[in-house]
Amino acid sequence: MGICRDFLYIGDTSDNTIKRFDATTGKFLGTFVASECGGLHGPRGIIFNCRGNLLVSNQNVDQPQNGNILKYNGKTGTFLHELVTSVQKGAPFAPRGIVLSNNNILYVADLQSPDDIPQPGKLRAYNGTSGKFLGNFDHSCFNGPFFPRSVVFGPDGLLYVSVFNPFDPLDGWVLQFDPVKREFIKVFIESNAVNNLHRPEGLVFGPDGNLYVTSFRADENDTDKILIFDGKCGKFLDKIDLDTVGEPRAFAMAILFGPCGKLFVPISGTGPDTGSVRRYDAQSKTFDVFIPAGKQLGAPWYLTFGNTDSATLAYDS
Questions:
Q1: Prediction pTM value
Q2: Which of 29, 78, 125, 227 has minimal CB crowding within 10 Å?
Q3: Over the stretch 22-65, which tens digit does the pLDDT of each residue have?
Q4: What span, in angstroms and rounded, lies between the C-alpha atoms of 21 and 19?
């Protein structure tokens, strides 16, 4: 039986493109979606829908209009249409992470509202085919400032959302929501002196059932890292440091498990590793450089494989 070739797609925020790589070798296969194609200005979350089309959360950075969700042909990268338009009811202002459920509901983490002083964002739901706005989640029982960054379905069928506090960058939460009732359930993880969760963004459940979350350094005496939590109770377990105190920064916005159970980490920052993609063994915390720095990628953020589940973000091998 033949093996289907898979690809890795990465949104590059340095030039507003989506680039494609061989999922096994890391070989660069070219720009899949060009800058401004379909109005692409600020690619964030990227996933494939059940028909194999690519959905892109487009933040429209430095543009006068709201953000939107764009749809592209999954084989050619050709722009198809706006799935969620920037002018429709419930349009997201600053869409970030996205997932698509098995019953075709698109969930969007809308970072904030359009004001000079940051106003809390929304967790929004849309029909995955028509883009029709279905409503916002009720987060009124959460006592902190609600600025959602990323979202993922857990093994329990609940939605997990990373939230940061722009007024105190040392804060951070992972919240649990009911996707059916669209209601807040509880704080699953809260920043404290033990876990050092700061400004969380990317989050994904690993093959081991644990939750992996990106975290940013508190100050020059701290490190950028990936934190590992028990996927059932949220207990802090371990961390993977991405840089070293006193050395140039290397941080990740989003992360994803891929082939062979490896954790793929696109690196941004101020150091020589910026623009690379590391491939980690999560158990040993060792990595190899899957995509080298300084060539194809300037500021890689969100990523997806062709075989990434659009809801759980797990890799289907």
A1: 0.96
A2: 78
A3: 999 999 999 999 999 999 999 999 999 999 999 999 999 989 99
A4: 7
